[in-house]
Amino acid sequence: MSRITTKSCDVCRASCSVCYRVQYQASDRVVGAWYLVCPGCQLTLSDRNPHYRYGGTWKAKR
Fold first, then answer.
1. 20 forms bridges with which residues in the sheet?
2. Distance in angstroms (rounded) separating the CA atoms of residues 60 and 57
3. Which residues contact 45 (CB under 8 A, 6 or more apart)?
4. Are 10 and 51 in contact (CB under 8 A)?
């Protein structure tokens, strides 16, 4: 019996099977902090944000 792994969004804490690795604040580029966010938060954070940077997609393994 296989179990699907999920992660929680670093912004809204929702459990998700697909997360995006992003930076979205000016200070993130200096410090190098990356966040795993759900698709909904990714759309919100990327909209008109000059500090937004995409770093890849994490998908749950089945």
1. 37, 57
2. 10
3. 11, 22, 24, 37, 52
4. no
Q: Is the dihedral of CA 36, 40, 46, 51 positive or negative?
A: negative
Helix (H, G, I), strand (E, B) or coil at 27: helix
3-59 pLDDT, tens digit per residue, is 778 999 999 999 999 999 999 998 887 788 999 999 999 999 999 999 999 999 999
What does the alpha-carbon distance between residue 17 and residue 60 come to, in Å, rounded to a whole number? 5
Alpha-carbon separation of residue 26 from 15, 32, 60 (angstroms): 26, 10, 29
What the block records as the tokens of 47 is: 């909209």
Question: What residue spans of the chain are helical by DSSP H?
Answer: 26-31, 39-46
